[in-house]
Amino acid sequence: MRVAILEDESAHADLIEAVLRAEAHSAVRFRAGRELIARLRQETFDLLLLDWNLPDLSGLEVLNWVRTSLASPPPVVMITARNAAADVVSALDGGADDFVVKPIERNVLTARIRAVLRRAYPSETAVGRETVAGYQFDPMTETVSWSGQSAKLTSKEYALALTLFRNLNRPLGRAYLLESIWGRHPNLATRTLDAHVSRVRRKLRLRPEFGYRLAPVYSYGYRLEAIHEQPDEADA
């Protein structure tokens, strides 16, 4: 998972990042709310960890922006020294998925992150074959099947297709897709992602006449949309 940490105190940010890396997540750090908001306009994150007290916007203000401005907001965990009941209520009522009080205990933060991600992305823990919106993904053969048809994909095409379907109707940033499929700091030709998207679109017939649109999102990335009702998964 790709996680954004909004924390202006280096010691706390170091601890949070260590917890995330121990769980094999990718972490990107921000010291100010406006800096994170600017990045969220351009990139995708799977989880936001927000400190409450910041030098510019409060974590609660950032949370409000996320919930009102993003079409598919990621889950949010507030991490703060505030522990009054009223503060917890304010954060949860504002749309936070959980609340962790400082000083941070590693095992508590780890457990809270795991729980939030399980709730937000249940399909990410699927083992073996997985069916999403009528398309069945077989990780052993890297084959995708639907409506009596099937397509054999390369490893990268398969990972890209599964990521798009797991995030159906959610815009995904180019940086997010590159990091998710090729790893951190990939040394790739500029058009590598676009070429893979084109092949996935063609092989899986992701066109409007078949109920899907896989299209670029200007200055951001790509989005796979279901544009009309799809058959039940049991029929796929």
Description:
With 236 residues, the protein is an alpha/beta fold. It is built from 8 helices and 12 strands. The chain has helices at residues 10-22, 33-40, 59-69, 85-93, 106-120, 155-166, 174-182, 192-203, and strands spanning 2-6, 26-30, 47-51, 76-80, 98-101, 130-132, 135-138, 143-146, 149-152, 172-173, 212-217, 221-226. The strands form 3 sheets. A 5-stranded parallel β-sheet has the order 2-1-3-4-5, with helices on both faces. It has a 4-stranded antiparallel β-sheet with strand order 6-7-8-9, covered by helices on one side. α6 packs across α7. The longest helix has 15 residues, at 106-120. The protein is elongated and about 55 Å long. The model is unreliable at 230-236 (pLDDT under 50).
